[in-house]
Design a protein that fits this description.
By secondary structure, the chain is an alpha+beta fold. Helices cover about 35% and strands about 35% of the residues. The strands form 5 sheets. It has a 7-stranded antiparallel beta sheet. Strands 1, 19, 20, 23, 24 and 25 form a 6-stranded mixed beta sheet that branches.
């Protein structure tokens, strides 16, 4: 009897040992074959997408132009530009230098042309007076000839001179009279019109006046515009010409401003930013103006598309703080908030860009087990960290954030960390 009990006891012990071994082996196999996942509890909220705009410029109200007093007939060449846009310059600083050599050459040539034109006028007057004098003398001679012939005819009529000869003489007198009338008309026409050899004294004087005006202009340029100086301490805002270019005064040379305090901040934006912000800033105009380690509150007045680009106009309370600040060092920050989502999840929790795995607890052969369920989702707004879910999740689910291997729908998993709150 004792022997049977001993055998039974040994069998029982062996069976228990086998069961323990099998259980231990099974759990070990399950542990090493079951995917390990990192989970997170889904919560709702808003997504923040901060937009940083760096292409910023300023506008200024106090702007003036430097140019010649008028447009000149003879342009002069730009020799040197001694400033650039954005420079702070002092009163009487030389901004632009023009080529005086070409100008002096033009002055010399114009003086020569003027002297020639004045000599042409003097010669014209002399020739014209001589012509009138000669024509008047010819008229007087013709008149004397007619008088002499008429006297001869009258004498012949009282003598025995044949009538036929007298009639011939009278016809000759009539012809001379007609010639005299024509000569007088030509003389009066030339004298009254002043037209001689295809020109007039007035036209000659006009040439002189033109050359004198050109010479006066060139001397004015030489005396006043060889060096263009800053009229006051100011900032150069725009330069319209280039070195080597000919300039005649028809357009501005330089724009400048006296004050370095902006009146507006203008941000240039691309099409993608414009499309993203055009509706949002209407309801959310607040922004941050960041420069030189300082942040100021700003207000977006409007955003618009123009033919030369897209622009956002920003106002701030005190523009004096931006005095002498380089706009290239200014950034505009827009703290863009999304709508409220019931479910915000980390981007890495989205598998193949369209679904997530929910972790559920159920009772299995070895007790409580965790099983994943594949859920199709519809994504909403997102940033670099999280995505808002429009459909598929209601909030507070536990989902898989990461896994050590590929998982499938309905697969049992094990958690290798505590469930983390988002």
């Amino acid at each position: 009897m004792d022997l049977k009990k001993k055998i039974a006891k040994r069998i029982t012990i062996t069976f228990l040992l086998l069961m323990i071994l099998v259980t231990f082996s099974s759990r070990t196999i399950i542990y090493f074959t079951t995917p390990k996942v990192v989970t997170i509890k889904v919560q709702g909220g808003q997504i923040s997408n901060d937009q940083i705009i760096k292409d910023v410029s300023f506008s200024y109200s106090e702007s003036f132009s430097i140019k010649f007093d008028k447009q000149y007939q003879t342009p002069i060449r730009v020799s040197k530009i001694n400033c650039k846009e954005g420079d702070l310059v002092k009163e009487n600083d030389i901004l632009i230098t023009f080529d005086s050599k070409d100008l002096l050459d033009n002055i010399s040539q114009t003086q020569t042309d003027l002297s020639r034109a004045m000599q042409d006028l003097a010669d014209f007057k002399k020739e014209f007076a001589r012509y009138l004098e000669d024509e008047l003398a010819a008229i007087n001679d013709k008149s004397d000839e007619i008088i002499d012939m008429q006297n001869t005819i009258n004498t012949n009529k009282t003598s025995s001179e044949p009538i036929q000869d007298i009639e011939v003489s009278e016809r000759q007198v009539e012809k001379l009279k007609r010639e005299l009338v024509r000569m007088q008309e030509d003389y009066n026409s030339v004298r009254n019109s002043g037209q001689f050899n295809g020109t007039t004294e007035a036209e000659k004087q006009k040439d002189i006046n033109k050359k004198q005006s050109e010479l006066d202009d060139l001397n004015r340029l030489l005396n006043n515009y060889i060096d263009i100086k800053a009229p006051i301490d100011c900032t150069i805002t725009k330069i319209y010409i280039q070195e080597g270019q000919d300039y005649d005064g028809s357009t501005q040379l330089i724009d400048y401003r006296i004050s370095n305090i902006p009146t507006k901040i203008i941000a240039t934006i691309g099409d993608d930013i414009y499309n993203d912000l055009k509706d949002y800033v209407t309801l959310n105009p607040n922004c941050k103006i960041m420069y030189q380690g300082t942040t100021e509150d700003g207000n977006i007045e409007r955003i618009e598309r123009k033919t030369d680009g897209n622009y956002m106009y920003v106002a701030m309370e005190s523009y004096e703080r931006l005095q002498n600040v380089n706009p290239k060092s200014v950034n505009i920050k827009i703290e863009k908030k999304s709508k409220n989502y019931n479910a915000l999840i980390p981007n890495e929790a989205i598998f193949q860009d369209s679904y997530v795995y929910i972790v559920n607890e159920q009772t299995g052969f070895l007790g409580k087990e965790l099983v994943v369920k594949k859920i199709q989702i519809k994504k909403g707004e997102y940033n670099s960290r999280v995505t808002g879910i429009e459909e598929g999740l209601t909030g507070y689910e536990t989902i898989v954030k990461g896994t050590d291997r590929e998982i499938t729908d309905g697969q049992r998993v094990m958690i290798n960390n505590k469930v983390a709150d988002q």
